[in-house]
Design a protein that fits this description.
Phosphorylase Kinase, domain 1, two-stranded antiparallel sheet, globular, 35% helix, 181 residues
Length: 181
C-alpha cells in the first residue's frame, strides 16, 4: 500500500503489522514513527459480527475516521491504557486512513503472567465498561436509542442472526425457538 500521500515528509520505511482487525502499518519518517490504520472491512459484507455492529450499535467499521471520536472518549475515561491521538486523516482512493501516535514499548503477551497483573488489567478494563449511559448506539451520535429499548433490540438481533446466519444449525435454531416462547 502506498501511504506517502498521508504524510508531508518522505516515508523512509513502512511495514505491515499483521494480526489486527484493521489494516495497520508502522511508518518511519524523518521526524518519527507513526501507526497508520484503515479498516479492511468492505461495507457490502454481511458477516454476523458486522451485521450486529451496524444494526445494534449503528457502527460502520469501514468508517475509519470514527476512531478519533472513540479514542477521545477513551482518553477521557481512563488513564490506565495508552490511547493514541489521531494526528491526521486522509483518503487513498475511497478508503479512509488515520495516522496515530505510536505507543512506546512492545506488544504484551498475556500467557503466564502473574495473577496480580491480570487482575489489575481486568480492573482497568472494568473501569472503561463501568461508564453508564442513558442511550445506546454510536459515539458519533449517528444512531441512538434509549437504553430501555436495548433488551428488545438485542432479542430481535439474536432472532435475526439465528435465522439469517445459523438457520442450518439445529442447536442454535432450536434453542432460539425455545427462548422465544
Amino acid at each position: 500500500m502506498k501511504l506517502q500521500s498521508l504524510f508531508k515528509e518522505e516515508i523512509l520505511t513502512q511495514s505491515s503489522l499483521g494480526g489486527h482487525a484493521s489494516d495497520v502499518w508502522l511508518v518511519h519518517t524523518i521526524s518519527g514513527e507513526y501507526v497508520v490504520r484503515s479498516s479492511g472491512v468492505d461495507e457490502s459484507v454481511e458477516a454476523p459480527f458486522l451485521w450486529v455492529y451496524r444494526n445494534l450499535f449503528g457502527i460502520e467499521l469501514s468508517h475509519t475516521y470514527d476512531i478519533e471520536e472513540t479514542n477521545i472518549f477513551l482518553q477521557q475515561t481512563t488513564t490506565k491504557f495508552f490511547v493514541p491521538r489521531v494526528l491526521s486523516k486522509g483518503l487513498i482512493g475511497e478508503r479512509q486512513f488515520v495516522v496515530v501516535e505510536k505507543a512506546q514499548g512492545s506488544s504484551l503477551n498475556f500467557l503466564n503472567k502473574p495473577v496480580e497483573m491480570m487482575e489489575e488489567f481486568g480492573r482497568s478494563i472494568a473501569e472503561i465498561h463501568a461508564c453508564e449511559f442513558n442511550e445506546c448506539g454510536a459515539l458519533n451520535e449517528t444512531y441512538r436509542y434509549s437504553l430501555m429499548d436495548f433488551p428488545q433490540k438485542l432479542s430481535q438481533a439474536i432472532r435475526t442472526l439465528s435465522s439469517r446466519y445459523y438457520f442450518s444449525n439445529d442447536a442454535v435454531t432450536q434453542r432460539q425457538s425455545i427462548t422465544a416462547h
